[in-house]
Amino acid sequence: MDRKTQLTILAAAAAVALLAAVPVIGSRALVQDLFGVLTLLVLALNWNMLAGFSGLVSVGQQAFVGIGAYVMFACVILLGMDPLAGVLVGGLAAMALAVPMAAFAFRLNGAYFAIGTWVAADIVRLVTSQWQALGGGTGTSLPKGTTKEMIFVQPVKDLLGGSSAAAADAVTYWVALALAVAMLGISYGFLRSRMGLALQAVRDNVEAARSVGIDPLRLKAMVFLLTAFGTGLAGALIFIQITRVTPEAAFSVIDWTAFVIFVTVIGGIGTLPGPILGVAVFYALERLLADYGTAYLILLGLIGMGAMLFARRGLWGWIADRTGFDPLPLSHRPPAPPSFTDLSDPVTQRS
To answer: pTM of the entire structure?
Structure first.
């Protein structure tokens, strides 16, 4: 392990430790803000895996956010489960939804695939709005006090002091942090593997990848299902903190897909540090310009257009090109050329 890698690992560990300490040293408002940042990062990492590394530009990720949230609410309200256990079930439900959605969307290519996923997500929203046990079109709320009785809330309250609500925020924050770190680590490990290299080959040239024995459909389907699982987990976790779910909020294309695409594109699509940088920029702009109403959204659009025109690889690509620094390299070294110095080779001996 070289010195650059060691320093990168130490810096990452220090950053994670600092983030983990926020509920102890920071305010509750900061915890809630960073919870939103971390969950947005999880959504962006999942979408980046689809669009940036698989070539699947989905505009229907809100389907997995919404179904994850609704199934979590169903687990709590109808089955009496702990909300955090409901988060896991919500992720599994999102993965199950991805199976028929992929069977439909994978018959389409390019812009048709994007539109197809959007249409499929809207169908899921319309169907979910008929779920009368969870309020139908008007939605429903978690029972009063549910989040304060989650697993780990009482020990955290005893540790930190303060209210049960603050302890519940700390628990969901730490789960979001763990999910973001796990997603980043799993993505890096996968993309550095032979299967990850094959996935990127499929993205660049499907026919060339197929000619060397790669099954593009199998790889893309696997990634589609796994990113649906991660997106569903994030969606369920987000709505634990919100404590109320409606079809419009859970399946919002702006909140759960448009902003995610913006974050990934300006940060650097097809790179792992890109979504991290994009989320940081998005959060800073949101804090600075949220009081300006529609001007805030207009500025976000202008920044996105500028990035696509003048920094095709996003802000991180622009930085990496000028500094040569890449803390999460995904490149692979070519195999070493064959050696012709073996003295046991009859050809070498004759020469």
So the answer is: 0.91
